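Ticket #4471: structure output looks truncated?

Reporter: J.K.
Steps to reproduce: submitted the chain below (119 residues) through the standard prediction queue, then opened the result file.
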Amino acid sequence: MSIAYWTVAGPLALFYGYAGTLKTVRGPDRLRPMMAWVDRVPLAALRTLGVVEVLGAAGLVLPPLTGIAPALAPAAAIGFVLLQGGAIVVHLTGGDRRIGLNAGLVTAAAVAVWLATGS
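Returned output as attached by the reporter:
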């Protein structure tokens, strides 16, 4: 993979690894100051989302590093595009118009897809 891919995918993986870990181990009370939407989803869904984010972060990094199943890297990036699309919907339907971070993440994930596919 190219330096450009790592420049985009590295920070993206760090972000999702951190955010996913928080969603997996912290309770809604500790997440609420950072994520106002946590009260609108069941705890099981929040935990599942955290696990998906951690696995997606691993999918961005491990396949290109090991050379095993390298097609998983663009698949993980596509998953993050879809995830952030859903996040934008959740924010907007909840009356939260602060979607700048989500827009940046969907853009970064889309660039990672493009770079991972060699286009």
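Triage note (M.O.): checked the attachment and the full token line is present. The CA atoms of residues 84 and 103 lie 8 Å apart.
Status: closed, working as intended.
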